[in-house]
Amino acid sequence: MITAYSKAAAKEQLDADVKGGLLERPARFAILFIGIVAAIFSMQYLVYILALLAVLANITALQRIAKAGKTARK
């Protein structure tokens, strides 16, 4: 959720298009899909993939916040 918010807030407040980061939305959905498929074999796989997805999504949000901060300083 914070990943999408950081992009929207930068667009609204700075009028800057903040794209990029480690994972875009399609990549996050692909990882989630892999987790759902892996859950067929064991629910533990889904837990691991969701934890990985949470960490990577937060890294993406932090990257976007940093990029928005650099844009704001210009």
Most strands sheet: none
Secondary-structure element order, as H and E? HHH
Structural class based on helices, strands and sheet pairing: mainly alpha
Helix content: over 70%
Based on Cα principal axes, name the global outline: elongated
In terms of DSSP E residues, the strand content is under 5%
Number of domains: 1
Q: Mean pLDDT across all residues, rounded?
A: 83
Radius of gyration over C-alpha positions, nearest whole angstrom: 15 Å
For the record, give the distance between the C-alpha atoms at the N and C termini, rounded to a whole number.
Answer: 27 Å
Strand tally is 0
Give unreliable regions as ranges: none
What's the quick description here?
By secondary structure, this protein is mostly helical. It is 78% helix and 0% strand. The chain has helices at 2-14, 25-38, 43-73.
Q: Layout of helices and strands, plus pairs?
A:
Blueprint: H1 2-14, H2 25-38, H3 43-73
Give an account of the 3D structure:
The protein has 74 residues and is mostly helical. The protein has one domain. The chain is built from three helices and no strands. It has helices at residues 2-14, 25-38, 43-73. Helix 1 runs parallel beside helix 3 and helix 2 packs antiparallel against helix 3. The radius of gyration is 15 Å and the shape is elongated. The mean pLDDT is 83.
